[in-house]
From TrEMBL:
Residues that hold FAD according to the record: H146, A147, L148, Q152, T153, D154, R155, T185, D462, P463, E464, R465
Domain HpaB/PvcC/4-BUDH N-terminal: 5-268
Keyword Flavoprotein belongs to the record: yes
InterPro entries given in the database record: Acyl-CoA_Oxase/DH_mid-dom_sf, AcylCo_DH-like_C, AcylCoA_DH/oxidase_NM_dom_sf, HpaB/PvcC/4-BUDH, HpaB/PvcC/4-BUDH_C, HpaB/PvcC/4-BUDH_N
Keywords: FAD, Flavoprotein, Monooxygenase, Oxidoreductase
Gene Ontology molecular functions: monooxygenase activity; oxidoreductase activity, acting on the CH-CH group of donors
Lineage top rank: taxon: Bacteria
Protein's organism: Pandoraea pneumonica
Residue span(s) of domain HpaB/PvcC/4-BUDH C-terminal: 288-487
Protein name per the record: 4-hydroxyphenylacetate 3-monooxygenase
Length: 489
């Protein structure tokens, strides 16, 4: 099939899925007002692939069908291929200003990484199943999301909770699963969902050690989504008052599996705890290339919005805000360096795997002995901090001006002319200033903005658990060894 159009994507969502939002069953997501904005945004991304001026940037020829397919699925191996894949990620995330963290771009890299990781482990049958899933998603140009987290029943225990997705029946042609997974961003408007590893499983938890892909309309699957932050055209609040919510609200959902059948050709891991716990640790890093690109773009957008707001109210002339925004510009440069390093590290890992080296190591002198993943570290620590700081600078630059009146107020024949006289800024008229302030409020003060802040903090999981994982990494001993050498003189 190859690349789809935006209209084909929209039609694919009319699949009679069981989606619940705000206590109502939404059978046709394309007819649900609050989802129309984000669906239109995603459809436009599909249409970009058919633009002759962008086709070389966004697509490549399928290695199996020779049809044009999304370059997000390019299994880059050479420096040139990594450059091309990174450029595709950059352009696509630029189109959404880094505000949609779980577009299928993320899963393209994730699915590639799981296939590579399984091959590196010598789990060749599982790797072949994973590769077939990559090809299924690539050749059908699917919008894929994931559900990786067990339900929050008792987080004091490291065990898999009994409420998590697990095998309840084994058949010759597949397995039947029941349980819950969260938090599936993009699920309301995705075609398929990947259920896979995040927290490790232990011996005895084989029924919970599952990785599979399932369509969103699978019998027995219910999608319980949070309420949409886009109010939809039926509530008279559109792109002026909610310029970001109305276009980029991905949605988040809890997935409820009530005896859902997963056929063998959709199963990647089925009870193999070693594969479940290890396959993403041995990934090349395509996921990190995409994720760091997206996070960098969001940092750029927040920095740009803070600058525009500061200029709109004259704060760009004060040392305080020049320094604050200047620091953000510095962080953007650090982020770009991280992105470049992640691309370089992924390329080095490809070369290491081709040599048969599972653990990529340096010589212990000219470079670190252990190279464990700059991308994951950046997603755990740098980007949550940098994007939180940028949002705070934006919030302070806007000040109380972010509590702006609505488009309806501005369009009122009596009020509008007064706003044009009095709510202006340096070299900016009232309407343009108001639009900027509404965007700042949508980014920092609305439900969409609050969710965006929480999302960055939890993008790669529980921060404390991530930090503990790094404490137990080999780098800890490598750093501590420096102190021993210093003491020895």
């Amino acid at each position: 099939m190859g690349i789809r159009t935006g209209q084909q994507f929209i039609a694919s969502l009319q699949d009679n899925r069981k989606l619940y939002i705000d206590g109502k069953l939404v059978r046709d997501v394309t007819a649900y007002g609050p989802l129309k904005g984000v669906i239109a945004t995603m459809a436009a991304l599909y249409d970009q692939q058919h633009d002759p001026a962008l086709s070389d940037l966004l697509t490549y020829r399928s290695p199996t069908t020779d049809e044009p397919v999304s370059k997000t699925y390019l299994e880059a191996k050479t420096q040139e291929e990594f450059r091309q894949q990174a450029a595709c990620f950059h352009f696509r995330t630029q189109s959404t200003f880094g505000l949609m963290g779980r577009l299928t771009d993320f899963m393209s890299g994730f699915l590639l990484d799981q296939a590579v990781g399984l091959r590196a482990m010598g789990k060749f049958e599982a790797a072949e199943r994973a590769q077939r899933i990559v090809e299924h998603c690539r050749e059908n140009d699917l919008q894929v999301t994931h559900a990786l987290i067990d339900p929050q029943t008792d987080r004091s225990k490291p065990d898999a909770p009994v409420e998590a997705v697990r095998v309840v029946e084994r058949r010759a042609d597949g397995v039947v699963v029941s349980g819950c997974r969260m938090l599936s961003t993009l699920a309301p408007v995705a075609n398929e969902c990947y259920v896979g590893p995040f927290f490790p499983r232990k011996a005895g938890e084989e029924d919970f050690a599952l990785a599979f892909l399932i369509p969103m309309n699978a019998p027995g699957l219910s999608i319980l989504a949070r309420e949409s932050f886009d109010r939809g055209e039926d509530r008279a609040q559109g792109t002026f008052d909610r310029p970001l919510s109305s276009r980029f609200d991905e949605g988040d959902a809890i997935l409820l599996f009530d005896r859902v059948f997963v056929p063998n050709d959709r199963l990647v891991v089925n009870g193999d705890i070693d594969a479940y716990n290890t396959m993403m640790k041995l990934a090349t890093g395509y996921t990190f290339v995409q994720a760091c690109t997206r996070s960098t773009m969001k940092l750029r957008f927040l920095t740009g919005l803070a600058t525009a707001i500061a200029r709109a109210n004259g704060r760009d002339k004060t040392p305080r805000f020049q320094a604050a925004i200047g620091e953000l510009c510095g962080l953007v440069n650090v982020a770009e360096a991280i992105r470049a390093g992640v691309i370089s590290q992924a390329h080095a890992r490809v070369n290491a795997f081709e040599r048969g080296d599972i653990m990529q190591e340096g010589d212990g002198r000219g470079e670190p002995k252990f190279a464990l993943g700059a991308g994951m570290a950046a997603l755990n620590f740098f980007f949550p901090s940098a994007n939180t700081k940028a949002a705070e600078v934006l919030r302070m630059a806007a000040g109380s001006g972010a509590l702006a009146v609505t488009e309806a107020d501005y369009n009122h024949p009596e009020i509008g002319p007064l706003l044009d006289r009095w709510l202006i800024g340096p070299n900016i008229n009232a309407r343009d200033r108001l639009r900027l302030m509404k965007m700042a409020w949508d980014m920092t003060g609305t439900e969409f903005g609050s969710r965006a802040g929480l999302y960055e903090r939890l993008y790669s999981g529980d921060p404390e658990r991530n930090a503990i994982g790094w404490f137990h990494s080999p780098i800890t001993a490598e750093c501590e060894a420096l102190v021993k050498r210093a003491l020895e003189g």
